[in-house]
């Protein structure tokens, strides 16, 4: 499979890109080089390889949920733009 200048022009049109001739030629060469490299993967013998979702074995690395003390309100309100009646006041988003 190879990419033609027409393919590059089509994708550029879809992406609303205005490419000059030099850029069209450059992208055509680059995309063809990528496809040639990807075709090398077809040469690999993967018959006895188990499908995987990730190359490394992953385990859940999240910490356990623990009950902890909350920050004191005075400390929380130091980072708030405004405070009103013990709550953080923010600009209204609905009218």
Automatic annotation (TrEMBL):
Enzyme class, broadest EC rank: ligase
Domain of life per record: Bacteria
Function, as annotated: Allows the formation of correctly charged Asn-tRNA(Asn) or Gln-tRNA(Gln) through the transamidation of misacylated Asp-tRNA(Asn) or Glu-tRNA(Gln) in organisms which lack either or both of asparaginyl-tRNA or glutaminyl-tRNA synthetases. The reaction takes place in the presence of glutamine and ATP through an activated phospho-Asp-tRNA(Asn) or phospho-Glu-tRNA(Gln).
Gene coding for it: gatC
Pfam family, one: GatC
GO biological process, one term: regulation of translational fidelity
Keyword Glycoprotein among UniProt keywords: no
Catalytic activity annotation: L-aspartyl-tRNA(Asn) + L-glutamine + ATP + H2O = L-asparaginyl-tRNA(Asn) + L-glutamate + ADP + phosphate + 2 H(+); L-glutamyl-tRNA(Gln) + L-glutamine + ATP + H2O = L-glutaminyl-tRNA(Gln) + L-glutamate + ADP + phosphate + H(+)
One MF term in the entry's GO annotations: ATP binding
Stored HAMAP family: GatC
Organism: Chengkuizengella marina
Protein name (record): Aspartyl/glutamyl-tRNA(Asn/Gln) amidotransferase subunit C
Assembly with partners or alone: Heterotrimer of A, B and C subunits.
Protein family membership: Belongs to the GatC family.
EC number: 6.3.5.-
Key words of the record: ATP-binding, Ligase, Nucleotide-binding, Protein biosynthesis, Transferase
Keyword Protein biosynthesis attributed: yes
